[in-house]
Amino acid sequence: MGNIQVAIDGPAGAGKSTIAKLVSRRMGIIYIDTGAMYRAVALKAIRQGINTQDRERVSQMVNNIDIKIEHAGNEQVIYLDGEDVSGKIRIPEVSVGASNVASIPEVRLKMVDLQRKIARSSSVVMDGRDIGTYVLPDAKYKFFLTASVEERAKRRYQELVEKGITNISLEEVKKDIEYRDMNDASRELAPLVKAKDAIEIDTTCLTAEEVADKIMVHIGESKC
Asked: Which residue ranges are tagged as binding site?
């Protein structure tokens, strides 16, 4: 039957990661947070003093980067050059940097190659910006999650507070999200856009569990 591929796309803060984790657990297959890969690239650039918008230097740097994804229990662990950076890639500076490096074609090509290799070897639930349109265009199950900018900013701000990051305001988080929306939608290679065959779900007024329920219903119906 081959591997099962579930693609979940959408803008920053739409709930993709949380919902993708829930779906992967219910289906009993691997969850891949592709955004974490770009965050790892951004973290390395920041550590080396490289402007994350500097295409030439970032492209050179990514030729010598080692990114691995493993799973411990129900959690994804991402390694950058052998170091577990799962917690270090979630700060706002890295979030903006990730959007910048993701706009660099050389970075996307390297990360997409890795993502496709994982999907060929295992059944996956994969979330990102271009999974259904570019990374896994033939995925059987495609979803596009949306939410208002205000709701997405509130969610991301709450996540940061829960992680003890309090040196940023809600308004700053909203500006970061608006910047990432613009950056992701206008990039040269594989911009953020809803796949024609994706099912769109507005998560603004729904809990993560409710969205996961909707996705599982669609998957169940398509199996019949």
From this structure: 10-18
